[in-house]
């Protein structure tokens, strides 16, 4: 987890002039459950909240952070006042962040998979292209073992039983048949 001095040094980069260094600082603090991580997320958000393209990276960082609370913070993200459910980049930031967040996406209770399925089904109504791309997160389900494999298969079956657009249906059918 590093020492406090190092974490504070990294945190200072979030306040620096470079947005790129601020993003790297967030990434460095992301896996560490510490006050500096919380502060860096708040500072970055406050500084860049009026720049949607940059704010999307904040949504992605939030969704890919291994929160102890599991899926709960990600559910809160999609209710955030600045989350734009019609903006493909914002949606991809959250869903892609979740998919890369192994402890939360692959939670033993299946909550990560269930959340992803529900988001894909809802998204499919307004943006079938983005929904079909998001569904590809389940394409490697056969390579997993044990409960991960069976829970992912259940998630795909849940998607398959939904009323989906042609685009998403095609992707889901390919995943099932692969």
What does this protein structure show overall?
This protein has 178 residues and is an all-alpha fold. The chain has 11 helices and no strands. Helix 8 runs antiparallel to helix 9, helix 9 packs parallel to helix 11 and helix 10 packs antiparallel against helix 11. The longest helix has 16 residues. The chain is globular and about 50 Å long.
With helices defined by DSSP (H or I, 4 residues minimum), what is the helix count? 11
Structural class: mainly alpha
Helix content: 55-70%
The biggest beta sheet is recorded as:
none
Q: Percent of residues in beta strands?
A: under 5%
Give the low-confidence spans.
none
Distance between the termini: 41 Å
N-to-C SSE series?
HHHHHHHHHHH
Tell how many strands the DSSP assignment holds.
0
**Spatial shape:** globular
Mean pLDDT: 93
Task: Tell me the Rg in angstroms.
Answer: 17 Å
Short précis:
The protein has 178 residues and is mainly alpha-helical. 69% of the residues lie in helices and 0% in strands.
Short descriptors:
178 residues, mainly alpha, 11 helices
Compile the SSE list and pairings.
Elements: H1 4-14, H2 19-29, H3 35-48, H4 52-64, H5 72-77, H6 88-99, H7 102-105, H8 111-126, H9 128-135, H10 146-160, H11 166-177
Helix pairs in contact: 1-2, 1-3, 2-3, 3-4, 4-6, 8-9, 8-10, 9-11, 10-11
